[in-house]
Every structure is written in structure tokens, then in C-alpha cells.
Amino acid sequence: MAATFITAELFRFFRSLARNNDRAWFEQNKQRYIDVVRDPLCGFVEAVGPKLRAISPAVVADPRPVGGSVFRIYRDTRFSKDKRPYKTAAGLVFRMGPKGSGAPTFYLQLSPGDVFAGIGVWHPPAEQLLAIREAIASNPTAWKRAARGGLRGEPALKRVPRGFDPDHPHADDLRRKSFSIASAFTEEQACAGDFMARFVRACRSGMPLARFLAEATGFDV
After folding, report:
1. Within the chain, where are the H helices?
2. C-alpha radius of gyration, the chain, whole number
3. Cα–Cα distance, 68 to 97 (Å, whole number)
4. Which segments within the chain are labelled E, that is strand?
């Protein structure tokens, strides 16, 4: 039987945290967080790493509890009006290039009522963003194949950026600052023994988009 790293306890923890998002509560429940969230997810990263590298040798799956593929739970509130100190979702990131480079990424979010796998790039640096837009503008047919099914979220800009045709068939995508597709799951699916296989299939299905983005920005995936 496949190992189960994600359990209902993870979602219970985040539901409780959402109701008690303060340092005093978290300190009292920190060991619970380590036991049902952080350490099991580090185990998930270690186990899924070889399966993701079979899809793309460039994938980095780092199981370290600090500085690895599992996002830290602490929010950076320095420049935010929202001063809640903790994230109410777990995030796992599997990059295909250095952090902040704009390389394609596999992502997994585990949140009560919102579990999904994402594949693509999120807010790439300006140079990579321009390169992606140019690739979309010059290769509309290839882009349509890569982004089949539609991208996650709404375009960030109200108008097509200067220098691009506002009547381009993919004008809406030219207005984006991030480019990703997503596969949604239920909490029950996330806790099932076959979830790792489901996640890997979702990542594999997103590789046409990852390859298009990587080719546009000079990465080898």
C-alpha cells in the first residue's frame, strides 16, 4: 500500500489555525504543526522527488524542513495590511531552475476546501515576462496547444502591454503576469493512498505548458 503523508489532521490543523491565528495559540500547537504538517510533507517531497525528476530532470525536490520545498508557515507581514502571522495553507514548490529565476515550477497547495496542483511560472522577472509574451505573440498555435484548457486566474492588466497587438487572438494571455494551469482535488483525494500518483499525473499533464515557457525563457526542462 502506498504511503500516506497527507491526512485529515493537516486540514484540521489549518481550520483551527484560521480561527486562532495568533502567536500564543501557535506556540501551544507548534509540535502539532510539526507532527501533522511539516514533517509529513517533507516526507512527501522526498518520496515524490524521483517521480517528478522522471518527468523533468531539472526538478528540484528538497525535503529539508527549513529552506526546502515546503513553504514556511510564517507570513511576511512587513508590507501588508494583513498582520496575521501565519499562513492557513501548506504549499510545496518544485522548481525547474534557481529560485527567482522565472523557471517553470510544479506547485501543490493544501488548504481546507482548496487543494490544487499548479504548473507554470508565477510573477517571473521582467526580462522573462517579456520573453513569454513575445513567444505567445509570435507562436499563437503552439501557445494554444500548450495552454489547452485555459490558465488559472484572471489577467492582471486591463490592457495589452505596449508593443503588442490588442487584437491578437491571445490578447487576454498577453495581459497576464503569471502563466499557470491547475488541477483541483478534494481533501479526501489528498488524504488517499493514491494521491501522490494523482499529483504526478497532474504535473505530467502540465509539461506542454512548462516546455513552452522554458523554451521562451531559455531554460532546459
Report:
1. 8-19, 23-33, 39-55, 126-138, 140-146, 171-174, 187-190, 195-205, 207-217
2. 18
3. 14
4. 90-95, 105-111, 114-121, 179-185
Q: At 78, list the grid cell.
A: 512587513
Contact at 8 Å (CB) between 142 and 162?
A: no
Cell of 16: 483551527
CB 94 within 8 A of CB 44: no
Which domains occur in the chain, in start order? 8-217 (3.30.930)
Amino acid in the structure at residue 187: E
Instruction: Say which amino acid occupies 53.
Output: R
pTM: 0.93
Task: Count CB-CB contacts under 10 A for residue 157.
Answer: 11
Residues in the chain, total: 221
Q: 10 Å Cβ neighbour count for 204?
A: 17
- How many Å apart are CA 155 and CA 157, to the nearest integer? 6
Each residue's pLDDT tens digit, 97-128: 988 888 999 999 999 999 999 999 999 999 99
